[in-house]
Amino acid sequence: MHLCLCVDEILRQVFQCIESRSTLCVLARTCRTFYNPAADQIWETLTAVEPILQHLSSARLVKKKAGSYLALLHPLSDDDWNTIRRLSSHVRRLHITLERNLPLHDAVNDAVPQWFCLLASPPDSSFLFPNLRALSFDVDRYLDVSGTGDMYTGTTQAIIRLFHLLLRPRLSALRFEMPSSFYPHLDISSIPVLCPNIHTLSLGRQNFYCDAVPIPDEVMYRFSRVMSQLRHLQTVRTYMTSWDMLSSLAEVKGLRQLWAFLPHRLGPGPKRPRGNIFPQLRTLDISTGSLTSCMELLRWTSFKEVAGIYIDCPVPTDDRDSLKTLVDMSSLISSQCKKLESLWVFFSPFDDRETPAAWPRPMLEPYRAFHQLRVIALQTSYSLMLADNEFEDMVKAWPLLEVFHLFHDGIMSPPVHLTLRGVTALLYHCPRLRDFTLMFDASRVPERYAPRFRGTLVRNTSVRYMGVYASPVMESAEVATYLSILMPYLAVVGVESGAGYGSEWFWMCTRHQRRPAIKLDMSPTKIYSLLTSGTEYGSDGQADYGKEWSWTSRRDWR
User: 413-439, pLDDT tens digit by residue?
Assistant: First the structure.
């Protein structure tokens, strides 16, 4: 064997390129030199504990009518614990989901799997996952003990005990979701002591306010104190948002990304913070059903370093004049975030007011001075009312635009005011544009032969995605030629299914020189996830947790 294959660092780099688990298992059995780097790669990520437990001598896969489950035939022996320690020491990322046995297995009435309480009582903490770097700990809401008396007291204690056992000193990423009744029993203050190097933290679940018992204010306050002690935090995602929590996060010097679910009522806001607040925050992601809470947060402090803002307020329930609020929000953001580069606003109120002329120009007008903007995406339930000249006058302020989406929500046949001339102006003034969504009339070309703007042939080689929603179009060879010249490298056309003109756009794609693919129902969140994947702004507006936890999808362990 070549000497370079005896170098552990080289082997680890090579084995990281191998995706097949069976290949890694063969390598681990090849020789002692290969064993540790191959075993570390095999066991690096676990989305269930069963792959370790099935190596125990007492483990059996029991098959019943309701399904199969792993059972241990007797208590764990010393040999069993040594096996657990040997295998779990390789694990760097662990996802545990504790669910109530629903439907119950035949003759199994435990609240959680039978082996769980055994695993929660090791000889000492070194036997369980001593080298963890990332932990995702999810307790099903059906295990909520509120109102059940002492029915699951032992189970609750075991769950909390296991959670604390897994808080390892090398942990850098922590995510946990539990029913509200569990939090008062956690030793929250120990988190910064047990794992002081956390840089990624995710708290709570989307429906935690719907649990039987709300989280007490004292517990929320203890969580906020913990935030101020985690000095290495860079990314926080929280469904437990309070003014105390926000005040503590504002003092975390290294915080770069903040995702916060804002409840309908945050309560009276504290005084405007002073000093160096959110000094490195680059991305602010807000999910809420309350415009009041959103506006209160934006007024509370200056997000002067923020470059990316994502606001998802799908169905606001506390606003009587949504259009005015959107305009006020834009004015507030533009006054607070002078370094803004990326703006996503998804807002779909039930509002039957008439759409104002030149919409959405009143909302986007405050950003005309932001020539550095690279991304603008807006979804409302109001129709696009801009004509070509007004549209051109607006978009020429953003020469660096790479993404520009104006989505319609809940409007099957919105009026169309833009034409291909407006689209041509957009691509002329924004040569870096890669992706855009607009409603425009594509039934005829503004010039007969080629797309020209002010005498210049417009040929944008950057555009890869064009969302057309239900834009009218005809099966015209002239239009197909025009689009081929205008966007020669177009790869995908997004069309709303059932909104009309789908077959015409399919015909148009077959005549385009690049034959772009048709994608149906490309929602704003789908596009956002695709565009921001692997970037500083990356996240998913609808997922319960961010992209950094994508590895937690459960894998088949049988």
Answer: 677 889 999 999 999 999 999 999 999
Strand, coil or helix: what is 222? helix
- Give the predicted TM-score (pTM) of the model: 0.84
Q: What is the pLDDT of residue 104?
A: 40
Helix (H) or strand (E) holding 480, with range, is helix 477-486
Strand partners, 61: 70
**Closest of 281, 270, 261 to residue 337, by C-alpha:** 281
Residue partners of 466: CB distance under 8 A and separation at least 6: 435, 436, 437, 487, 490, 492, 493, 494, 516
Give yes or no for a contact between 222 and 188, defined as CB atoms under 8 angstroms apart: yes
- The partner residues of 465 in beta bridges, in order of sequence, read 435, 492
Helix 477-486 to helix 502-511 angle (10° resolution) is 60
> Where do the H-state alpha helices sit in 108-216?
116-119, 153-165, 191-194
Residue 79: left if φ>0, alpha if ψ -120 to 50, beta else—which one?
Answer: alpha
Length of the chain measured in residues? 558
Nearest C-alpha neighbor of 313 from the set 267, 346, 281, 280: 346
Strands 342-347 and 283-288: unpaired
- In angstroms, what CA-CA distances link 78 with 59, 85, 124, 258, 546? 15, 10, 12, 45, 39
Q: 329: closest CA among 307, 356, 306, 362? A: 362
Calpha distance 410→348 (Å, rounded): 8
Express each pLDDT in 52-95 by its tens digit: 888 888 888 877 666 677 778 888 899 999 999 999 998 999 99
Angle formed at CA 538 by CA 434 and CA 292, multiple of 5 degrees: 105
3-state secondary structure of 543: coil
> CA 417 → CA 108, 360, 391, 409, 420, distances in Å?
64, 13, 10, 17, 10
pLDDT for the residue numbered 108: 44
Q: For residue 448, give the 3-state DSSP assignment.
A: coil
Q: What are the C-alpha distances in Å from 95 to residues 41, 47, 173, 504?
A: 16, 5, 11, 47
Task: Give the Cα-Cα-Cα angle 206, 135, 74 (nearest 5 degrees).
Answer: 110
Share of the chain above pLDDT 70, in %: 81
Peptide bond into 37 cis (omega under 30): no
How crowded is residue 63: how many other Cβ atoms within 10 Å of its Cβ? 11
